[in-house]
Design goal:
about 130 residues; alpha/beta; Leucine-rich repeat, LRR (right-handed beta-alpha superhelix); 6-stranded parallel β-sheet; two-stranded parallel sheet; 8 strands; Leu-rich_rpt; LRR_dom_sf
């Protein structure tokens, strides 16, 4: 289990912790972290809401095992300040993912390349810059 505690920087990289379970962003880090990169960690949809912090603006969850973005991120008001989200190389296949992401009102850039998405709803393309 990886639990991240006090960190001197506003950016944190936690990559390639294969076969380990990412648990949460906690402590002082949760109050100061602006950019988080947890790519290549085999995270699943149930791990997403645990990554939320009060000031997070950039999140990279590329190359994990996200088959979907859980609707629960809207229930917990997660990622309220999130501006950039990288979901590339995951295996996402449902256009419903875009409706979940549309609740992230500050989202400006979204990378969903190398997924299995075949349809992008029109309203979403007007809201964010797709990379």
């Amino acid at each position: 289990i990886i639990v991240m505690l006090a960190w001197p920087s506003k950016t944190c990289y936690v990559n390639n912790f294969i076969n380990k379970c990412f648990y949460s962003v906690d402590g002082d880090l949760a109050n100061t972290l602006i950019c988080l990169d947890v790519s290549e960690n085999r995270l699943g949809p149930e791990d997403i809401y645990r990554l939320s912090t009060s000031k997070l603006k950039q999140l990279n969850v590329s190359a994990n095992q996200l088959m979907a973005v859980p609707e629960s991120i809207t229930d917990y008001h997660c990622f309220l300040l999130l501006e950039h989200l990288d979901l590339s190389d995951n295996g996402l296949s449902s256009s419903k993912t875009f409706y979940v992401l549309s609740t992230l009102h500050n989202l400006q850039a979204l990378d969903m390349s190398t997924n299995r998405i075949t349809f992008i709803p029109y309203l979403i393309t007007k809201q964010v810059t797709l990379l």
